[in-house]
Amino acid sequence: MEYYGFTLTPAREGQSHAQRYAELFSTVEIADRSHFDGWFFAEHHGEASFSLLPSPNLVIAALSQRTRRLQLGNLVNLIPFHHPYRLAAEIRMLDTFTGGRLEVGFGRGQVRTEQAAFGTDRSATVDMFDAGFDIIRRLLLGERIDYDTPWWKGSNAFVTPEPTQRPHPPFWLSAASDSSIEKAARLGMYCATALLSRKVSDTHMAEYRRHWDRCNPDRKGQGKFSITADVAIGRTFDEAYAQVAHHFDKRKEHFSRSITDRPGDNDETYRTHRPNYEAFAKSSIEDMLENHLLVAGTVDQCIEQVTAIRNRGIDVVNLSFSANDPDFARRSVELFGSEVIPAVEGLRAKAV
Q1: Domains in the chain and their CATH numbers?
Q2: What pTM does this model have?
Q3: What pLDDT sits at residue 268?
Q4: Which of 144, 163, 225, 286 is close enough to 158 for a disulfide, judged by CB 3.0 to 4.6 Å?
């Protein structure tokens, strides 16, 4: 199993936003020196208490010069909020800056306030994603193209610089519905999930693998499926959970609003998200542990919990370290990278 950090980077009380970014950078540098495989950065807009990352690509550009080993990626670029020609060129630059360590996630977005801020018609986001991704993919394959969509038009388009990874960096799709699981496999993209119960996640994983092998016969068994979990490592379970409880509450509040502000009549796929978000918003500590949405406790407890995730056949686990105390969060990253991963994977520990 591969281990990636994942961050929304919510604002923290008592820290300036500049201090929060500095903390993020130093945390990823710690991960780069240990057994983490990579780090992903989300894209969200407007609400600092939820995320301070309106541009994950800027973060990747900065960290490309401060890390040497980690894969760096975005989960995700929200295609309806970007011009695809500009985004394709940006991806090429980031792949160059990272020396071929870039992974690229794509999604269509699902937060109404963000769509309103960009003036995006939420009922059109599936079509916008499909059109935008097709333009980006063709440009990254080195084609010179004309394109004409209801949202973007261009002619004789091609991108520089030259590719570092060929034909392009690995692609991830943020998936939360049966249709998006199938789409990820059909487009040859890895599949990133979050906030799902273990039962739903395991069903999606089996379906993704089935679709992948059918759609990619020359790459059978090479798809990747990820889940996302919050992590806190302390002297006791109670100490660890106390550090992340506030962030779970904020996230539940955020997704509860995502449920109640949806019109429900303009996009069938949005409606399929509702049961998953409702279940997450109502989940207890026990539910989060059972569903592998939370890894918390002592080092030994976390080793046991992560081993259970690995035994499910998960390819990549994305790990969020959102503690109240920045020193506690940093220490959790250090312990996870230096003790938990080596114990689960049978590796020699690295000093951080």
Answers
A1: 2-345 (3.20.20.30)
A2: 0.94
A3: 60
A4: 144
